[in-house]
């Protein structure tokens, strides 16, 4: 199959699909990495929300860094009513925070305390099947490792996660931290980028005494793409990428 025959999944992020031949390859796992504050969670949620809103594709969000109710409230600033699509069965949010901090969860979908890797993956699989999800977000990998107490075995955890995602044929975004990407360190553990089939870096660059955001596609299998830095903004409607923009 040539790359022109690859089924594509629209990202819902204006400007991005123009850079990756129309969208992510269907069924692929994409790592979105970058320092704190670059917009990784917004990027990931936009992928799921726009999938439900524009393309009638259900999606699951596994939130491991903030409570589901906080995520819903924050996304309303972009006009994204996650609850609306949850009620319609097009979005499911898995609360992975409450039990980790010893609080009961009021969410329909919530991870239990003490889950091992297999239990974690089985639960995600069940929720994906419940709403027949086509898209999945896990935010974030370091939080998986900490929550499951598996930091020493993170490569094995990620390989298992990636395998089950590929088996489900679901298109996924995993987020991670990159503390110093300019020195070549793209992820917290140094293995995440090798497991994923696509890697997108979000970062800052100083320009005119200001920090500007840029996006770099480091890897995207089955896809022809440029290795350039493209400016992007977080607007009142979400992330917008400027394919013809220049980064100096």
From TrEMBL:
GO MF term list: ATP binding
Coiled-coil region(s): none
InterPro entries: KaiC-like_dom, KaiC_dom, P-loop_NTPase
Highest taxon of source: Archaea
Domain KaiC: 7-248
Pfam families, alphabetized: ATPase
Keywords on record: ATP-binding, Nucleotide-binding
UniProt-recorded name of the protein: RecA family AAA ATPase
């Amino acid at each position: 199959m040539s790359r022109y025959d690859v089924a594509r999944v629209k990202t819902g992020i204006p400007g991005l699909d123009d850079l990756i031949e129309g969208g992510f390859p269907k069924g692929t796992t994409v790592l979105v990495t970058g320092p704190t504050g670059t917009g990784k969670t917004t990027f990931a949620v936009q992928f799921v929300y726009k999938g439900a809103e524009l393309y009638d594709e259900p999606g699951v969000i596994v939130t491991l860094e903030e409570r589901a109710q906080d995520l819903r409230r924050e996304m309303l600033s972009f006009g994204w009513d996650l609850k609306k699509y949850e009620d319609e069965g097009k979005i499911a949010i898995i609360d992975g925070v409450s039990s980790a901090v010893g609080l009961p969860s009021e969410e329909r979908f919530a991870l239990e305390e003490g889950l091992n890797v297999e239990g974690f993956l089985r639960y995600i699989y069940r929720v994906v099947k419940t709403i027949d999800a086509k898209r999945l977000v896990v935010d974030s990998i370091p939080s998986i490792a900490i929550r499951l107490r598996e930091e020493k075995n993170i490569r094995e955890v990620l390989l298992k996660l990636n395998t089950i995602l590929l088996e489900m044929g679901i298109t996924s975004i995993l987020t991670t931290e990159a503390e110093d990407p300019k020195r070549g360190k793209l992820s917290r553990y140094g293995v995440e980028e090798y497991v994923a089939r696509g890697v997108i870096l979000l970062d800052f660059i100083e320009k005119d005494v200001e920090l500007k955001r840029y996006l770099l596609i480091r890897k995207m299998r089955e896809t022809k793409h440029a290795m350039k830095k493209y400016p992007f903004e977080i607007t009142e409607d979400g992330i917008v990428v400027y394919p013809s923009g220049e980064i100096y």
